[in-house]
Sequence to fold (121 residues):
Amino acid sequence: MAKKRRREEAEPEETYEFTPPEFDEREFLLKDLYGTKVLMVAAVLAIIMGILAFCLHRATDIYAVGLLLLFLTIVAFKQILGLLKFRIDLMDQKTLIGNYILFLFLALGVWIILLNPPFSL
Fold:
C-alpha cells in the first residue's frame, strides 16, 4: 500500500498592519497660521499694487507698464516676504504658487475696478 502524503502545514501568512505616522497637531496649526499670515500679506500687497498700477496707467496711458509692475512684484514676492521677516522655507511650493495667483487676480481686479467710471473720470 502506498503511503499517504502528509500535507505540509502552510506557514502563516504575514499580516500587514497599518501604522499611521506621527502627527504633530501643534506644528500643523502653526504652519497653517503662518500660511494664513502670508496670504494676508499677499492680499494687502495686491491691493496696493493694483492702486499703483492704476496710477502708472493714468500717468503713462500705457497698460503694459501696470502689468509689468504686477509681474515684477510676483517675481520679487519671496524677497518682499524676506524683508518682512517671514521664513520662506516653512512654506510649501504649492502654497506659494497659490499666493502668486491670488496676488495677480486680486491686483488685476482692483486695477480694473479703478479703471471704470465712478473712480476713473
